[in-house]
Amino acid sequence: MLTEKKYNLVLVPHKESNQRPDFEQIASYIEKNAPDIQVFIVEDIEENKAIDKFLKKEPTLVFSIFRLKHLKQLTGTIYEGSIVSKYEELLMMKRMDLPVPRMALLSVGNKPNLDDFGDYIVMKPARGRQGADVKIVKKSKVKWKKPKTEAASRSHQWILQEFIYTGEWPTSYRVTTLFGKVLFSLKIEANRNKIPLKSRNDFKNGGGTIVSSGKGCSFSLDYDEEIIALGEKAHAAFPLVPLIGCDIVRDVEDGKLYIVEANSMGLVWHFNSPIGRSSQKHSNISFESQFDGINKSAEILIQKTRSLTLS
User: Fold this and answer.
1) How far apart are CA 181 and CA 229, in angstroms?
2) What predicted TM-score, i.e. pTM, was given to this entire model?
3) Which uninterrupted H or E stretch holds 177?
4) How does DSSP assign 190-254, residue by residue?
5) Minimum mean pLDDT among 3-12, 104-113, 124-133, 295-304: which range?
6) CA gap 162, 60 in Å, rounded
7) How, if at all, do strands 243-250 and 171-178 pair?
8) What 3-state class would DSSP assign to 120?
9) Parallel, antiparallel, or unpaired for β 37-41 and 103-106?
10) If you placed Cys at 170, which of 9, 52, 190, 292 could pair as Cys (CB 3.0 to 4.6 Å)?
11) Residue 281, SS3?
């Protein structure tokens, strides 16, 4: 017996963050477990605007990891990646009383008052990715300069952030969530062949970088409930963004957690992205295996799609 379709779900893949087979797996799962939902997988290109004529009769959810360009006018409720800067992300989370480090914005001709900061400050481009141009700077030497790397070349402002000491080797956590539910959670530790940072202000003797995800770093699946809960809670600051990758650090001295980035642009799917495959192979782990991530995504999308008529 055929089930009449009551909802539409449009999945828009993005080549930098996810591969089409991931969405095909989701579509197959929904076909078997939620026959009331019709799934479409379409790329964000001009020709695919024609799909709109098939969406007008039923409630429709559009899920795009990245910001849409050509399909922005599709019928239905659209959830897509954000275009806000990293500084705006932090402000949005701070307004919700989420724990973010003390911060300020540095631009050409405008140096903020840093009296309340410690001796060392983290400088990062307001727009950038993959740890590009992130550095630790002595407070007295903070000044504006042009980013060096291509990944941060479009940024004209710097975020100045309170330095959180995470141990001898920089350590961070990435909690990736879909509509506020964890898909995978990682611990990322910097290359231990580097000179260790023995204490919070030991930059003269070692610890030249505070980026944990540089060359030679190690990834492991992390099940810390406190960290996962904070990553899930942070998603509430981005109600229209379906996918975020919350970067969290723990102060090794007092145990407090801080959110340093949300990555609301959306390029954090990483089950089968080029970056994700490389990281998983290098560390001999599987992001999907932790919480059955792709099938869990399908369940989350089923619930979100069916909720369209409940509002």
Assistant:
1) 9
2) 0.91
3) strand 171-178
4) --TTSPP--STT-TTTS-----TTSTT-EEEE---HHHHHHHHHHGGG-TT-SEEEEEEEE-TTT
5) 124-133
6) 43
7) antiparallel
8) strand
9) unpaired
10) 190
11) helix
Query: Using the 8-state DSSP alphabet, how is residue 46 labeled?
Result: G
Both structure tokens of 57:
């009769």
Q: Which tokens hold the place of 134?
A: 């992130």
Q: Which fold has domain 86-265?
A: D-amino Acid Aminotransferase; Chain A, domain 1 (3.30.470)
Distance CA 100, CA 162 (A): 9
Find tokens 């959810």 and name the residue.
Answer: 61
Supply φ then ψ for residue 26, to 5 degrees: -65, -45
Tell me, what DSSP letter sits at residue 110?
Answer: B
Q: Which of the pair, 196 or 34, is modelled with greater confidence?
A: 34
CB atoms near residue 243 (< 10 Å): 29
Using CA atoms, how far apart are residues 201 and 237, in angstroms rounded to an integer? 33
- Distance CA(211)–CA(171), nearest Å, equals 8
Domain layout of the chain by residue ranges:
7-81+292-309, 86-265
Q: From 2.40.50, 3.40.50, 2.60.40, 3.30.460, which CATH number describes the 7-81+292-309 domain?
A: 3.40.50
Contact between 283 and 277 (Cβ < 8 Å): no
Indicate the residue type of 225: E
